[in-house]
Amino acid sequence: MMTCSHWWRFFVTFHFSLAMLLLASCGHPPPYKQQAYVFGTLVDITIAGEPEAKARQVVDHVLTEFDRLHHELHAWEPGDLQRLNEQLAKSPVTGTLSPELAAILRDASRYSAQGDWLFNPAIGNLIRLWGFQSDTFVPHRPDPAQIARLIKANPRMSDVVIEGTHFRALNPALRIDLGGYAKGYALDLAATYLRSQGVNNALINIGGNIIALGQHDNRPWKVGIQHPRQAGAIATLELHDGEAIGTSGDYQRYFELAGVRYCHLIDPRTGWPAQGTQAVTIIAHGPHAGVLSDVASKPIFIGSAGGWRALASKMGIVEALRIDAAGRASLTQAMAGRLDWSDKSTPPNIEP
Fold it and tell me: Does the reported pTM lie above 0.70?
Protein backbone atom coordinates (compact mmCIF):
# COMPACT_ATOMS: atom_id res chain seq x y z
CA MET A 1 0.00 0.00 0.00
CA MET A 2 1.31 3.44 -0.88
CA THR A 3 2.39 5.75 1.91
CA CYS A 4 2.16 9.09 0.19
CA SER A 5 2.73 12.06 2.44
CA HIS A 6 0.67 15.20 2.34
CA TRP A 7 4.11 16.58 1.66
CA TRP A 8 3.37 20.27 1.58
CA ARG A 9 2.37 20.07 5.24
CA PHE A 10 5.78 18.76 6.25
CA PHE A 11 7.98 21.22 4.41
CA VAL A 12 9.76 24.06 6.14
CA THR A 13 7.30 26.07 8.26
CA PHE A 14 7.68 29.56 9.57
CA HIS A 15 6.78 31.05 12.93
CA PHE A 16 6.10 34.57 14.10
CA SER A 17 7.13 36.11 17.40
CA LEU A 18 4.66 37.56 19.91
CA ALA A 19 5.96 41.01 19.07
CA MET A 20 4.62 40.62 15.55
CA LEU A 21 1.14 40.04 16.94
CA LEU A 22 1.35 43.35 18.80
CA LEU A 23 2.30 45.45 15.77
CA ALA A 24 -1.14 47.01 15.44
CA SER A 25 -1.03 48.35 19.00
CA CYS A 26 2.37 49.91 18.23
CA GLY A 27 0.94 52.01 15.42
CA HIS A 28 1.99 49.68 12.59
CA PRO A 29 -0.53 47.98 10.32
CA PRO A 30 -0.81 44.29 11.19
CA PRO A 31 0.91 41.87 8.81
CA TYR A 32 -1.20 40.79 5.85
CA LYS A 33 -1.18 37.07 5.12
CA GLN A 34 -2.71 35.08 2.28
CA GLN A 35 -2.55 31.42 1.28
CA ALA A 36 -3.13 29.62 -2.00
CA TYR A 37 -2.44 26.26 -3.59
CA VAL A 38 -0.09 26.56 -6.56
CA PHE A 39 2.71 24.40 -8.04
CA GLY A 40 1.04 21.45 -6.36
CA THR A 41 1.81 22.84 -2.92
CA LEU A 42 0.72 25.34 -0.30
CA VAL A 43 1.84 28.94 -0.82
CA ASP A 44 2.01 31.45 2.05
CA ILE A 45 2.69 35.15 1.49
CA THR A 46 3.08 37.59 4.37
CA ILE A 47 3.50 41.34 3.90
CA ALA A 48 4.61 43.47 6.84
CA GLY A 49 4.39 47.23 7.34
CA GLU A 50 1.98 48.01 4.47
CA PRO A 51 -1.67 49.10 4.46
CA GLU A 52 -4.01 46.18 3.93
CA ALA A 53 -5.33 47.48 0.60
CA LYS A 54 -1.84 47.72 -0.90
CA ALA A 55 -0.76 44.39 0.58
CA ARG A 56 -3.82 42.66 -0.88
CA GLN A 57 -3.21 44.22 -4.29
CA VAL A 58 0.42 43.13 -4.57
CA VAL A 59 -0.29 39.66 -3.20
CA ASP A 60 -3.08 39.16 -5.73
CA HIS A 61 -0.64 40.08 -8.50
CA VAL A 62 1.99 37.67 -7.19
CA LEU A 63 -0.50 34.80 -6.94
CA THR A 64 -1.74 35.50 -10.47
CA GLU A 65 1.87 35.24 -11.70
CA PHE A 66 2.36 32.03 -9.75
CA ASP A 67 -0.71 30.55 -11.38
CA ARG A 68 0.57 31.57 -14.83
CA LEU A 69 3.95 29.95 -14.17
CA HIS A 70 2.31 26.83 -12.80
CA HIS A 71 0.53 26.29 -16.10
CA GLU A 72 3.32 27.40 -18.44
CA LEU A 73 6.04 25.33 -16.73
CA HIS A 74 3.96 22.25 -15.91
CA ALA A 75 5.63 19.09 -17.21
CA TRP A 76 2.49 17.18 -18.17
CA GLU A 77 -0.41 19.62 -18.35
CA PRO A 78 -1.03 21.97 -21.34
CA GLY A 79 1.42 24.86 -21.44
CA ASP A 80 4.69 26.01 -22.99
CA LEU A 81 6.77 23.24 -21.44
CA GLN A 82 4.34 20.46 -22.27
CA ARG A 83 4.24 21.61 -25.90
CA LEU A 84 8.03 21.65 -25.98
CA ASN A 85 8.16 18.11 -24.61
CA GLU A 86 5.87 16.94 -27.39
CA GLN A 87 8.32 18.39 -29.90
CA LEU A 88 11.36 16.93 -28.16
CA ALA A 89 9.98 13.43 -28.56
CA LYS A 90 10.49 13.86 -32.32
CA SER A 91 14.18 14.83 -31.92
CA PRO A 92 16.21 15.84 -33.82
CA VAL A 93 13.93 18.84 -34.14
CA THR A 94 14.16 22.61 -34.28
CA GLY A 95 11.69 25.18 -33.07
CA THR A 96 11.03 28.46 -31.29
CA LEU A 97 10.60 29.12 -27.59
CA SER A 98 9.08 32.01 -25.70
CA PRO A 99 11.80 34.40 -24.50
CA GLU A 100 11.02 33.46 -20.90
CA LEU A 101 11.25 29.71 -21.44
CA ALA A 102 14.44 30.09 -23.49
CA ALA A 103 16.06 32.03 -20.64
CA ILE A 104 14.86 29.47 -18.08
CA LEU A 105 16.28 26.52 -20.03
CA ARG A 106 19.64 28.24 -20.52
CA ASP A 107 19.80 28.96 -16.81
CA ALA A 108 18.76 25.42 -15.85
CA SER A 109 21.41 24.02 -18.20
CA ARG A 110 24.09 26.12 -16.52
CA TYR A 111 23.09 24.95 -13.06
CA SER A 112 22.91 21.36 -14.28
CA ALA A 113 26.52 21.43 -15.47
CA GLN A 114 27.62 23.20 -12.28
CA GLY A 115 26.12 20.42 -10.14
CA ASP A 116 27.82 17.55 -12.03
CA TRP A 117 24.53 16.86 -13.85
CA LEU A 118 22.91 15.58 -10.64
CA PHE A 119 20.36 18.37 -11.06
CA ASN A 120 19.13 17.26 -14.46
CA PRO A 121 15.75 18.55 -15.70
CA ALA A 122 16.25 16.53 -18.89
CA ILE A 123 15.29 13.23 -17.18
CA GLY A 124 11.55 13.83 -17.34
CA ASN A 125 11.03 10.42 -18.93
CA LEU A 126 12.61 8.74 -15.91
CA ILE A 127 10.47 10.80 -13.53
CA ARG A 128 7.38 9.85 -15.52
CA LEU A 129 8.43 6.18 -15.62
CA TRP A 130 8.48 6.13 -11.81
CA GLY A 131 4.99 7.66 -11.75
CA PHE A 132 5.92 11.05 -10.31
CA GLN A 133 4.59 13.08 -13.24
CA SER A 134 1.06 12.73 -11.95
CA ASP A 135 -1.14 14.36 -9.34
CA THR A 136 -1.88 10.91 -7.96
CA PHE A 137 0.40 7.95 -8.43
CA VAL A 138 0.39 4.21 -7.84
CA PRO A 139 3.46 2.68 -6.17
CA HIS A 140 5.39 0.48 -8.57
CA ARG A 141 8.94 -0.34 -9.56
CA PRO A 142 9.48 0.19 -13.30
CA ASP A 143 10.94 -2.43 -15.60
CA PRO A 144 14.74 -2.27 -15.07
CA ALA A 145 15.22 -2.67 -18.82
CA GLN A 146 13.29 0.55 -19.45
CA ILE A 147 15.40 2.35 -16.87
CA ALA A 148 18.57 1.00 -18.45
CA ARG A 149 17.53 2.23 -21.91
CA LEU A 150 16.97 5.76 -20.63
CA ILE A 151 20.26 5.77 -18.71
CA LYS A 152 22.08 4.62 -21.84
CA ALA A 153 20.46 7.44 -23.83
CA ASN A 154 21.91 9.85 -21.22
CA PRO A 155 19.61 12.86 -21.77
CA ARG A 156 21.15 16.12 -20.55
CA MET A 157 20.24 19.77 -20.74
CA SER A 158 23.19 20.26 -23.10
CA ASP A 159 21.21 18.22 -25.64
CA VAL A 160 18.98 21.27 -26.09
CA VAL A 161 20.96 23.89 -28.01
CA ILE A 162 19.39 27.34 -27.60
CA GLU A 163 20.29 30.35 -29.71
CA GLY A 164 18.15 33.34 -28.86
CA THR A 165 14.64 31.92 -28.86
CA HIS A 166 15.45 29.14 -31.32
CA PHE A 167 16.35 25.64 -30.20
CA ARG A 168 17.73 22.40 -31.60
CA ALA A 169 17.10 19.14 -29.74
CA LEU A 170 19.64 16.39 -30.27
CA ASN A 171 18.36 13.49 -28.14
CA PRO A 172 14.94 11.82 -28.48
CA ALA A 173 15.16 10.68 -24.83
CA LEU A 174 14.78 14.28 -23.68
CA ARG A 175 11.80 15.28 -21.60
CA ILE A 176 12.10 18.45 -19.52
CA ASP A 177 10.80 18.57 -15.95
CA LEU A 178 11.33 21.87 -14.13
CA GLY A 179 9.93 20.67 -10.81
CA GLY A 180 13.28 21.44 -9.18
CA TYR A 181 13.51 24.95 -10.62
CA ALA A 182 10.08 26.55 -11.06
CA LYS A 183 9.33 27.34 -7.40
CA GLY A 184 12.67 29.11 -6.99
CA TYR A 185 12.15 31.05 -10.20
CA ALA A 186 8.73 32.15 -8.95
CA LEU A 187 10.25 33.33 -5.67
CA ASP A 188 12.74 35.54 -7.49
CA LEU A 189 10.03 37.03 -9.72
CA ALA A 190 7.86 37.75 -6.69
CA ALA A 191 10.70 39.37 -4.74
CA THR A 192 11.63 41.59 -7.70
CA TYR A 193 8.02 42.67 -8.20
CA LEU A 194 7.41 43.43 -4.52
CA ARG A 195 10.51 45.60 -4.32
CA SER A 196 9.42 47.43 -7.48
CA GLN A 197 6.17 48.29 -5.68
CA GLY A 198 7.99 49.62 -2.64
CA VAL A 199 7.25 46.55 -0.53
CA ASN A 200 10.44 45.84 1.39
CA ASN A 201 9.25 43.49 4.14
CA ALA A 202 7.75 40.17 3.13
CA LEU A 203 8.08 36.42 3.50
CA ILE A 204 7.12 34.18 0.59
CA ASN A 205 6.86 30.44 1.15
CA ILE A 206 6.21 28.06 -1.75
CA GLY A 207 6.03 24.60 -0.23
CA GLY A 208 9.12 25.10 1.88
CA ASN A 209 11.16 27.17 -0.55
CA ILE A 210 11.17 30.54 1.21
CA ILE A 211 12.56 33.96 0.41
CA ALA A 212 12.74 36.85 2.87
CA LEU A 213 12.52 40.57 2.16
CA GLY A 214 13.55 42.94 4.92
CA GLN A 215 12.21 42.02 8.33
CA HIS A 216 9.20 42.36 10.62
CA ASP A 217 8.98 44.41 13.80
CA ASN A 218 12.65 45.34 13.38
CA ARG A 219 13.61 41.67 13.62
CA PRO A 220 14.69 39.13 10.97
CA TRP A 221 12.09 36.64 9.85
CA LYS A 222 12.25 33.38 11.79
CA VAL A 223 11.75 30.06 10.00
CA GLY A 224 11.83 26.43 11.04
CA ILE A 225 13.36 23.41 9.31
CA GLN A 226 10.98 20.46 9.32
CA HIS A 227 12.15 17.25 10.93
CA PRO A 228 12.14 14.63 8.12
CA ARG A 229 10.62 11.88 10.28
CA GLN A 230 8.68 13.69 13.00
CA ALA A 231 6.13 16.47 13.30
CA GLY A 232 7.65 19.83 14.09
CA ALA A 233 10.92 21.59 13.43
CA ILE A 234 14.34 20.06 13.91
CA ALA A 235 15.84 23.56 14.14
CA THR A 236 15.00 27.23 13.62
CA LEU A 237 16.96 30.13 12.19
CA GLU A 238 16.66 33.80 11.31
CA LEU A 239 16.35 34.58 7.61
CA HIS A 240 17.72 37.95 6.55
CA ASP A 241 16.87 40.32 3.71
CA GLY A 242 17.34 38.69 0.31
CA GLU A 243 18.12 35.24 1.66
CA ALA A 244 16.28 32.14 0.50
CA ILE A 245 16.08 28.71 2.12
CA GLY A 246 15.27 25.47 0.33
CA THR A 247 14.84 21.86 1.38
CA SER A 248 14.88 18.62 -0.58
CA GLY A 249 13.55 15.63 1.33
CA ASP A 250 12.52 12.03 0.82
CA TYR A 251 9.31 12.75 2.75
CA GLN A 252 7.86 15.22 0.23
CA ARG A 253 6.65 12.87 -2.51
CA TYR A 254 7.30 9.20 -2.05
CA PHE A 255 5.83 5.73 -1.85
CA GLU A 256 6.89 2.56 -0.06
CA LEU A 257 7.09 -0.98 -1.40
CA ALA A 258 8.33 -3.96 0.60
CA GLY A 259 9.58 -1.62 3.30
CA VAL A 260 11.67 0.49 0.91
CA ARG A 261 11.00 4.20 0.50
CA TYR A 262 11.13 5.53 -3.09
CA CYS A 263 11.15 9.32 -3.31
CA HIS A 264 10.65 11.62 -6.28
CA LEU A 265 14.33 12.67 -6.39
CA ILE A 266 15.79 10.47 -9.14
CA ASP A 267 19.53 9.86 -9.41
CA PRO A 268 20.34 10.55 -13.09
CA ARG A 269 23.31 8.17 -12.91
CA THR A 270 21.23 5.12 -11.99
CA GLY A 271 17.65 6.01 -12.90
CA TRP A 272 16.50 5.03 -9.40
CA PRO A 273 15.25 7.24 -6.56
CA ALA A 274 18.15 8.55 -4.52
CA GLN A 275 18.92 6.66 -1.31
CA GLY A 276 21.06 7.51 1.68
CA THR A 277 19.62 10.95 2.47
CA GLN A 278 16.49 12.01 4.34
CA ALA A 279 16.77 15.76 3.78
CA VAL A 280 19.05 18.59 2.71
CA THR A 281 18.45 22.23 3.63
CA ILE A 282 20.48 25.12 2.22
CA ILE A 283 20.55 28.91 2.44
CA ALA A 284 21.13 30.89 -0.76
CA HIS A 285 22.15 34.50 -1.29
CA GLY A 286 22.31 36.93 -4.18
CA PRO A 287 20.01 38.28 -6.91
CA HIS A 288 18.83 34.76 -7.85
CA ALA A 289 18.64 33.33 -4.34
CA GLY A 290 15.23 31.77 -5.01
CA VAL A 291 16.37 29.68 -7.97
CA LEU A 292 19.58 28.70 -6.22
CA SER A 293 17.68 27.59 -3.10
CA ASP A 294 15.53 25.32 -5.26
CA VAL A 295 18.23 23.94 -7.55
CA ALA A 296 21.29 23.52 -5.34
CA SER A 297 19.69 21.21 -2.76
CA LYS A 298 19.19 18.50 -5.42
CA PRO A 299 22.83 17.61 -6.21
CA ILE A 300 23.68 17.72 -2.51
CA PHE A 301 20.77 15.36 -1.74
CA ILE A 302 21.59 12.93 -4.55
CA GLY A 303 25.37 12.97 -4.15
CA SER A 304 27.26 10.50 -2.00
CA ALA A 305 27.74 10.78 1.74
CA GLY A 306 31.38 11.63 1.18
CA GLY A 307 30.75 14.07 -1.63
CA TRP A 308 27.93 16.32 -0.45
CA ARG A 309 30.24 18.96 0.99
CA ALA A 310 32.16 19.32 -2.28
CA LEU A 311 28.91 19.55 -4.24
CA ALA A 312 27.69 22.32 -1.95
CA SER A 313 30.88 24.26 -2.69
CA LYS A 314 30.49 23.71 -6.43
CA MET A 315 26.99 25.14 -6.24
CA GLY A 316 28.24 28.17 -4.31
CA ILE A 317 26.53 27.12 -1.07
CA VAL A 318 28.31 27.69 2.25
CA GLU A 319 25.33 27.10 4.58
CA ALA A 320 24.05 23.55 4.23
CA LEU A 321 22.54 20.84 6.42
CA ARG A 322 22.33 17.15 5.44
CA ILE A 323 20.43 14.45 7.33
CA ASP A 324 21.45 10.96 6.27
CA ALA A 325 19.32 7.82 6.02
CA ALA A 326 19.96 7.01 9.68
CA GLY A 327 18.82 10.46 10.80
CA ARG A 328 22.33 11.74 11.56
CA ALA A 329 22.80 15.45 10.88
CA SER A 330 25.91 16.95 9.31
CA LEU A 331 26.32 20.59 8.44
CA THR A 332 28.79 23.21 7.40
CA GLN A 333 30.44 25.49 9.92
CA ALA A 334 28.57 28.48 8.46
CA MET A 335 25.22 26.71 8.87
CA ALA A 336 26.04 25.69 12.43
CA GLY A 337 26.27 29.34 13.35
CA ARG A 338 22.75 29.98 12.08
CA LEU A 339 20.73 27.19 13.68
CA ASP A 340 18.97 26.86 17.00
CA TRP A 341 18.47 23.12 17.51
CA SER A 342 15.26 21.79 19.03
CA ASP A 343 17.11 18.80 20.53
CA LYS A 344 20.33 20.09 22.01
CA SER A 345 21.24 16.72 23.54
CA THR A 346 22.44 15.31 20.19
CA PRO A 347 24.84 17.75 18.56
CA PRO A 348 25.25 17.46 14.78
CA ASN A 349 28.50 16.73 13.00
CA ILE A 350 30.16 19.90 11.71
CA GLU A 351 32.17 19.52 8.52
CA PRO A 352 34.69 22.26 7.64
Answer: yes
Residue % of the chain over a pLDDT of 90:
85
Could you tell me the pLDDT band of residue 9, with boundaries at 50, 70 and 90?
Answer: very low
CATH of the domain at 65: 3.10.520.10
Supply the range of the domain harboring residue 291: 1-352
Q: What's at 165, amino acid-wise?
A: T
Give the span between the Cα atoms of 130 and 140, in whole angstroms. 7
CA atoms within 13 A on the CB side of 160: 36
Give the dihedral of Cα atoms 277, 306, 208, 348; nearest 10 deg: 90
Distance, in Å, from the CA atom of 187 to the CA atom of 209, rounded to the nearest integer, reads 8
Domain count, the chain: 1
Strands 349-351 and 329-332: parallel
